[in-house]
Structure formats: structure tokens, C-alpha cells
Amino acid sequence: MKKRHKLYNYRWQKIRKNYLQSNPLCVICKNDGFIVPATIVDHIIPHKGDEYLFYDESNYQSLCKHCHDSYKQRLEKTGRVVGCNESGLPIDPNHEWNQS
Ligand SMILES: [Zn+2]
């Protein structure tokens, strides 16, 4: 069995549960007009083990499994994410609008 990352601990389990309770729908499906329950709390900016990014709630988004898999694949393939969030900002964290 593969050893789980040390950040995916009890604290994360609690955060994840709370986040899904307040954000129960997949954000990508919602943008497309579909109501789909989210099961995954995704890190918008890959945390790569960085604790600050990992625990930063503004870096979270609720996704269903399907979107999580295709979103990450698309991001890995193209390096860009298509679409925008409810504020009209691109969901691509690498988009120039999201650079501060
Ligand atoms: Zn979805």
C-alpha cells in the first residue's frame, strides 16, 4: 500500500468534510448548468506539499470525480484550464487575470 502524504491527515479530513458541507456541488458542472454533488476538494493551485497552499481555503474547489479527473488531465495536457468561475474570472490559476 502506498504511503499517504503526511498532509492528508485528520486535520485535512475535517477541513474536507466541512468544505464539502458548505460547497456541496461540483463547480465545473455548476458552470455548465448541471447540479452534481461534489466528492473531492481539489487544490486549485497544486500545493506540491506546501502547507500554506494546502490549508488555504481560497485555494479549494469542490469537484465531482469525473471533473476532477478530466480537469487535471486537461491541465496537465494543455497547461491551461477552460472556463470561468461565478465571478467571471477564469478558473485557470495560471491565467494572467489570476496572477497577482
Ligand atoms: Zn463535475
Q: Which keywords apply here?
A:
single chain, 100 residues, mainly alpha, two-stranded antiparallel sheet, 4 helices, 2 strands, 8% strand, binds zinc ion
Offer a quick outline of the entry.
It is built from four helices and two strands. The chain is mostly helical and 100 residues long. It has one domain.
Q: List segments where confidence is low: pLDDT < 50 over at least 5 consecutive residues.
A: none
Approximately what portion of the residues adopt beta-strand conformation? 5-15%
What is the C-alpha radius of gyration, as a whole number of Å? 14 Å
How far is the N terminus from the C terminus?
40 Å
Q: For the largest beta sheet, what order do the strands appear in spatially?
A: 1-2
Order of helices and strands: HHEHEH
Whole-number count of domains: 1
What structural class do helix, strand and pairing data support?
Answer: mainly alpha
Mean of pLDDT: 83
Largest sheet composition:
2 strands, antiparallel
Write the layout of secondary structure elements.
Elements: H1 10-22, H2 27-31, E1 40-43, H3 51-54, E2 60-63, H4 65-78
Bound molecules: zinc ion.
Zinc ion is lined by residues 26, 28-29, 36, 63-64, 66-67.
Describe what this molecule looks like in 3D:
- The chain is mainly alpha-helical.
- The protein has one domain (10-98).
- The radius of gyration is 14 Å and the shape is globular.
- The protein has a two-stranded antiparallel ribbon.
- The chain has helices at 10-22, 27-31, 51-54, 65-78; strands at residues 40-43, 60-63.
- The longest helix is centred in the C-terminal third of the chain and has 14 residues, at 65-78.
- It starts with 9 loop residues before the first helix and ends in a 22-residue tail after the last helix.
- Zinc ion binds at residues 26, 28-29, 36, 63-64, 66-67.
